[in-house]
What we know:
Elements: E1 2-9, E2 12-19, H1 21-38, H2 51-82, E3 91-92, E4 104-111, E5 125-128, H3 135-148, E6 151-153, E7 166-175, E8 178-179, E9 185-191, H4 199-205, E10 213-219, E11 233-247, H5 253-258, H6 265-299, H7 306-327, H8 336-360, H9 366-380, H10 384-390, H11 394-415, E12 417-420
Parallel strand pairs: 5-12
Antiparallel strand pairs: 1-2, 2-4, 3-4, 6-11, 7-8, 7-9, 7-11, 10-11
Helix pairs in contact: 1-2, 3-6, 6-8, 7-8, 9-10
Amino acid sequence: MDSQVNEIDPVTVEVAVQVPWDRVKAGLDASYGKLQKTVRVRGFRQGKAPRHVLQKLYGPQVRNEVIASLVEEGLLEAVTRHELPVVASPEVRTLPKIEQGEPLSFTAKMEVRPKVDSLTTDGLQISRPKTDVADEEIDAEIQRLREQHAEIVTPDEPRPAKAGDLLTIDYTVEIDGEANEDMTASGRQVELGGGRLLPEFEEGLLGKQVGDDAEIRITYDDETPNVDLRGKSAVFSVKITELREKVLPELDDELAKDLGEYETLSELRDKTREKLAEAAQQRAQSSLREQVIEQLVEKNDVPVPPSLVDQQQEAMKREMAWLAQIAGPGFDLGDEEEMRERAEKKVRAALLMGELARREKLTVEPEEIDAKLQTIAESSGKHIAKVRVEYAGEKRESLANKLLEDKLLDFLLERATVTDAADE
C-alpha cells in the first residue's frame, strides 16, 4: 500500500492511502470464497453456487466488508510506516468505492501528539508555603476532638436555641408564591453555628424554642449553585420539634486518656502539633508540585489535540457528578468553560511531562515497582504475594505511571528556584 501524510495543523494530519488493485482483488476473492462455503443458495448444492450468483445476491455486502477491512489495514500500515503518534480514532472523510481494475483510494484525518521542538525547564520560580504550626491551630484541632467526643443531650429546662445547638425541624417551602413539594422536609436535623446553613435560615432559628413556628424568607441571587432557584424568593414555614445541645468533655488529662493514645493534656498537644506539622509539610510539597507543573505549562505553550481535552473534560464531569451525589442537592458542578480550560491545562501538562521523560530518558524499572509493592505490603500488613496480585495488569501500570510522575516532578523541583513564603 502507498500512503502520504500532509500536516493540517500541529495536532492534525491528513493521511492519503492507495491500496493496489491486486490486494483489493485478493480481498474480494477471499470473501467470496468464504461466502461460497457457508451460504445456501436455492437451486445449488452447498458450496457450488457460482460467483456471479453470489455477486448478484451479496455483492454490496461483500464490497462493504472488503472496503472496511482494507481501510483499517491501510490506516494501520500508514500509522506504522510514518510513525504517527495518533491520539484518537481516525476520521475517514469519504468511504471509497471498488472499481474494477483500479486501486482503492481514500483519505483520513487523524489527531496526533504535537511535536515539541523546544522544552523550557529553566527559570522555574516557586514558593514554599509556610509550614509553621501556630498555637491557635492546635487549640482548634483539640476543640474539634472535643466536639467529636461531645455528649448530645436534651437540656434539663426548655430554653431558646443558641449557636452549637442541634435542632430537629419540619418545614414546607413556597417558591415565588407556589408550594414546592420537592423541598419540603420532615425530621431534618440542623446545627446552629456550624456554617452550613444560609445566614437567613440560621438567624430565623436562633432564639426559638421547641414547638415554635418560624417563617424564614430567602432571596436567591444569580450566584446560587442551584440554577433553578436563581433570582427567586422562598418562604420556609418551619416548626421546631426538638432541641439538643452538646456537652463537651473537660479540657484536661482525662480527655487525653479518653482519646486512647495519650496520658496527659500536654502530650496530646505535643502529638497534635506533630500531626499538624506533618500535614502542613505534605500540603506544602503538593503545592510545590502544582506550582512547578503550572509554570512548566506557562513556559511551554504547545498545542493540544481537542479529542484529548474532550476525554479529560468528560473524566472531570464524571468526577464532579460523583461528588454531587455525595454532597446532595445544591452542589455546584462548576462553569463549563472553566472546566474546559482546566482540562486543556491537564492535557498540556501530560504532553509536556511525557516529552520531558523522553528527553531525559526517565523510566521506571520493574525492580522499582517491586520495591514500591514491598513498601505497600509492609505498610498495609498484607503478604507481598497478595499485593502483587492486587496490583496486576492496569493497576500495576497505573503505579508505574505514578512513580514516573514522581521522578519527573523531582527532576523539575531540583531545577527550580524555591523561596520560602515566610521570607518573602
